[in-house]
Write a structure and sequence with these properties.
heterodimer, A: about 120 residues, alpha+beta, Arc Repressor Mutant, subunit A, 3 strands, elongated, B: about 350 residues, globular
Amino acid sequence: MAARHLQEPTRLVLTALADAPRHGYAIIQEVLAISGGRTKLLTGTLYTALDRLLQQELIQVDHEEVVAGKLRRYFALTDQGRDVLTAETQRLRAGVAEAERRLALSRLQPNGGTA
Amino acid sequence: MTAPPLTTPESLLPPARLPLAARLPLLGLYPAKYRATYGEEIATVFAETVQDLGPGTALREWAALAAHAGRLRTRLSSADPAGRITAGAAPFILAGGAGLSMVQLLVGLILPDPLRRIEQWGHPAIWTALVVAQTGPWILALIFASLGRWTPARLLVLLGILGRIGAMLAFTTPNDPLADVLPYDLLLPFGILPGTVLLIAPADAVDISPHGRGETVLTALALAVPMSVLAIFWFRPDLSPTIAPFSRTEVNLLDVTVAWPAAVMSLAMLLHLGARRPDRPRATGIALAVLPWTAMLPPASYYLLAPPGLWAQVISYFLLRNAGVVLAFLATATLLAALRHALHRSLPTDPPETT
């Protein structure tokens, strides 16, 4: 697969699965929490992303269980998915670090002026 | 495994809180195989999601799932090869449509009108509105796409297609000498067929990364700038049928202009296909986006030199010739990419370092 930046919903779904396998509804809730309430995945959007991530082998079905009569299918990151999320995290971290460096520089200059 | 019911199981929802959207057909929209695997789970997640939502939001949830089901049925999801190919084509169709719209906006509104068609419209404002209606949405769509806003870009493309159809109906008058040529506009990148490919492409597979956006804008400008320059310098103040024929240089230049868009897009395809880790569905999508340039006919005034009644033959000649040019560019790009990969494979690789 060619290296590409992840779209935000994809990144959030991978992030939601980074610490533990989760089922569909739990992923929606987790993404809502991770994004500070900004991103509410529609069920259709979630399953579109899950289909694609399964096809790209970035996630896999971990296990299934029936809880209170409801089928729960748990999804988990694959090693490849973990690598992709790690690379994306490093890319984002580099961007944040650079932004912070420049902001700090501008604070050091009188009146926040430019060089 | 027994197939789940075709609507959301009511046992999953307290009946008193059952929103209207939950009673709409849903699982039946999915292909049987997918429904057997994921139907019950999707019904569960949908039921849990909509139970505390208002009717509008619940309907939006239902619509997103119905769209998901539709994509799976038509094999146009981002997990399907056809979906990934259309997603690869979409930015390049947008680039082509927007680039060509820029040229048409220039020719239609800014440059003088050699065929004096504006005069037929009585009021220039009507002409301006028609030109803007078919070109403006595509240019705006490119701007939105360049900002990573694919959904509004797609809506604008839909508006642009409708504007083009409307303008075409308005432009075509009885005995109009251009009536034979105008329908081919609908096959060009800003026309119905390519525009539809863009509209049905799965948005989650379209490359809207900064690199992808830059590529789309660069492609649009690579098309628009040289063609605009030619439109400006090629302008002839008087194109009545009695004028002297075009010079050989002018004819050659026009022929090159017709082939130029196919050359630019084929180069983009070569860059993707020849990359170290080629994204083949994307490259195939770009090839798909090159095909509409077959309908890139020379400016209509070009035909005025042909004897009356022979336009259909002249157009057929250009279409066949363009098809040859487009296929030749695509074949060359594919061959060069294959050569690059063969060369890369034949080069000795460095042995792994030992410590």
